[in-house]
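Entry:
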Amino acid sequence: MNDNSRVKVAIGSDHAGFQLKQELKRELIELGYDVVDVGTDSEETCDYPDYALKVALCVSEGEASRGVLICGTGAGMSIVANKVKGIRAALCNEEYTARYSRLHNDANVVTMGSRVVSLEKAKSILRDFVETSFEGERKDGLRHVRRLEKLARIEEMYCREVEG
């Protein structure tokens, strides 16, 4: 087993993404990642915000390093996840966006559409996302760090804590 076993990835889907989630979960395990599956557990109709929030909270609270979310288009999951402070969710239905969302944006959640990508494409997107590192630590990547600092300031200014 490789060093990925120390990296936790949270994964979730709605009913439309359930079958693809199951396949991507197997792929992550085969790649050596520790996987936290937050559901859904069937193709029975459910609400995507519930599962997007669970994955986003796993990542924002440090229970997982990265998150994977699947619904029909990936859009709904992305919208919800990006409401959580500290989450940088990227809707990736091809590999280039997956790779560069990690390299330049240090995205920590990937969303995909089960009705948009094939299984093989989804696996390739997943691999690019989980295996690509943020290049902000490199001398030529400092511009990316500066941009993420601006993003953090925007979150501080406009994101409000929810009172229970």
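Residues 3-134 form a domain with the Ribose 5-phosphate Isomerase B; Chain: A, fold (CATH 3.40.1400.10).
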